[in-house]
Amino acid sequence: MEDPEFAWRQKLMKDMANDDSERGLLTPPSARRIAMKLLISGALFASIYGMFHIDKPWADQGKLYITAALTQSYDFTAVSAWYADKFGGAPSFIPSFNRAANEAVIVSTSKRTLFAPAKGSVLIRYDGNLHKGVKLNTAEFAPVYAMDTGQVIFAGTTTDTGVTVMIRHPGGLESLYGGLSEATVSVGDWMKVGEPIGKASAKDSAKGNLYFSVMKEGVTINPADVITFD
């Protein structure tokens, strides 16, 4: 359940099941359907078992194919590249997709739209050392939005960033929104992309109105690499 994308789907499925149960729409599978599935499974097993006991050219080809499918490792590289191109990043709930070591922190947002946390200009830019996020100059008490779907993992006050909200997103991303005048979410809340989470602070050009940072697998990255600011 550490992956918010997986947890989100599980929550939706559970909610749908509860709704259907309350309406009396859930019915146990019929004996006929179960018997049909068992019959098909038995036929497939018998066919494969018989193939391995027949000494014919066509059977030999089938034996080779089945043996290869059961013994050879599947190369997920091509599939992972296709998934990343279509959906933006490999699915974290399939460990095989993350076998290849990748020292560089890369955030792919192709085919995935991320939402700017607030409308405004960059007052202090990310440099990776002193500034591990950006400070935005926004309107007073401007609404602040979740950059992507995810779950709130922190909502409170810190010494460094004042009133702060942190959200865990799919693909190992986490976003932090600091210096808020108020937060309207709580820990455990599920957020949709672009959903309001609070308000920026009052006008203060010396500090900026909103502190925003992004992490990938626990490492801070430049928010401007994944978000377009005004």
Fold and architecture overview:
The chain has 230 residues and is α+β, with helices and mostly antiparallel strands. It folds into two domains: 4-72, no CATH class; 120-225, Glucose Permease (Domain IIA) (Distorted Sandwich). The chain is 29% helix and 24% strand. The protein has helices at residues 4-22, 31-51, 57-71, 77-87; strands spanning 120-124, 134-138, 143-145, 150-158, 162-168, 173-180, 182-183, 190-191, 196-199, 210-216, 219-221. A hairpin with a 3-residue loop joins strand 4 (150-158) and strand 5. The chain is elongated, with a radius of gyration of 25 Å. It comes from Paenibacillus oryzisoli. This is M23ase beta-sheet core domain-containing protein. InterPro entries: Cell_wall_metabolism_enzyme, Dup_hybrid_motif, M23ase_b-sheet_dom. Pfam families: Peptidase_M23 (PF01551).
Identify the notable features of this structure and list them briefly:
alpha+beta; single chain; Glucose Permease (Domain IIA); three-stranded antiparallel beta sheet; 4 helices; eight-stranded antiparallel beta sheet; 2 domains
Shape: elongated
User: How many discrete domains?
Assistant: 2
Low-confidence regions: 95-111
In terms of structural class, how would the helical and strand content be classed?
alpha+beta
Percent of residues in helices comes to 25-40%
CATH superfamily of the largest domain: Glucose Permease (Domain IIA)
Q: From N to C, what is the helix and strand string? A: HHHHEEEEEEEEEEE
C-alpha-based Rg, rounded: 25 Å
N-C termini distance: 35 Å
CATH-defined fold name of the largest domain: Glucose Permease (Domain IIA)
Strand content: 15-25%
Mean of residue pLDDT?
76
**CATH top level label of the largest domain:** Mainly Beta
**Largest sheet, strands/sense/barrel:** 8 strands, antiparallel
Count the helices. How many?
A: 4
Total beta strands? 11
Query: What's the architecture of the largest domain, going by CATH?
Result: Distorted Sandwich
